[in-house]
Amino acid sequence: MDKSVYIRHIKNENEHWWFKARREILSYQIKKYTNKNKIKVLDFGAGSGTNIRMLSHFGKVDAYEKDLETTIFLKKRYKNTTTNIINKPFSKNQKYDLILAADVIEHIKNDKIIIKNLNKILKKDGLLIITVPAYNFLFSKKDETLKHFRRYNQVSLKRLFNKDYKKIKISYYNFFLFIPISILIIIFKIVNYQFIDDVETKPNSVANNIFYHIFRFEKYILKYVNLPFGLSIISIFKKK
């Protein structure tokens, strides 16, 4: 991603409704499907580190980020914690109970290879949690700026996982805001408007709280059922 994207995420990730609600949804899912107190976790493609503190509640966290400048920032930010910041290839001895790739693989040209490689550093019965943006018809200037190669549907995402994985859960989410936000994205595409600053900067407090509570409510629903459509997809696969 561009440097400006990381800077914007760093400024907004703590309070922006989307980041806050996504962390709660992820935390709820991790609690449901992990049965150990202190697990070894990899935050793959940690970016600005928005999920690291949430993940640290479950155990020891390693955070992998390919970009060197971002890695330096993360090392400074987490220097007084137990989080280990990595930007080098993984060794055979590094094995994790849980790997989270939150809105990462859409940035990678060969996404199937990444899923295969992550399997090598996942313990038997370990969980791989992937979140991605949904539906290519919503691919916009925002995706281009974020350097996305694609958006996904459930079928295209499931195709990435071979016989080495068992599907635990796959669902759309950001369901309740799907229609209004999709309409806005389509309008912005028609008028060729670059809207990334508008959506990734925290809105006024009233709007931010409304969006946050609407989005976070889905954590209770996703605990029990899968949603039929949404702006994003969450998937959980277990290594056989």
The CATH topology name reads: Rossmann fold
Note poorly predicted spans: none
Give the CATH superfamily.
Answer: Vaccinia Virus protein VP39
Q: Regarding quaternary structure, how should these chains be classified?
A: single chain
Helical proportion?
40-55%
Distance between the termini: 33 Å
Categorize the overall geometry: globular
Query: Which CATH architecture would you pick?
Result: 3-Layer(aba) Sandwich
The count of β-strands is 7
Annotation field: number of helices = 11
- Class from helix and strand fractions: alpha/beta
- Written as H for each helix and E for each strand, in order along the chain, the element string is HHEHEHEEHEHHEHHHHE
What would CATH call the class? Alpha Beta
Q: What gyration radius follows from the Cα positions, in whole Å?
A: 17 Å
What's the number of structural domains?
A: 1
How would you sum up the major sheet? Answer: 7 strands, mixed
Roughly what is the average pLDDT, rounded to an integer? Answer: 93
Q: Work out the strand percent.
A: 15-25%
- Main-sheet strand order equals 3-2-1-4-5-7-6
Topology:
Layout lengths: L2 H10 L4 H17 L5 E6 L7 H5 L2 E6 L3 H10 L6 E3 L9 E7 L8 H10 L1 E12 L7 H5 L8 H5 L6 E9 L4 H13 L5 H5 L4 H12 L1 H5 L9 E8 L1
Helix pairs in contact: 2-10
How is this structure best described in words?
- It is a single chain.
- The chain has 240 residues and is α/β, with parallel strands linked by helices.
- The protein has a single domain, classed as Vaccinia Virus protein VP39 (Rossmann fold).
- 40% of the residues lie in helices and 21% in strands.
- It has helices spanning 3-12, 17-33, 52-56, 68-77, 111-120, 141-145, 154-158, 178-190, 196-200, 205-216, 218-222, and strands at 39-44, 59-64, 84-86, 96-102, 122-133, 165-173, 232-239.
- It has a 7-stranded mixed β-sheet with strand order 3-2-1-4-5-7-6.
- Helix 2 (17-33) runs parallel beside helix 10.
- The longest helix is centred in the N-terminal third of the chain and has 17 residues, at 17-33.
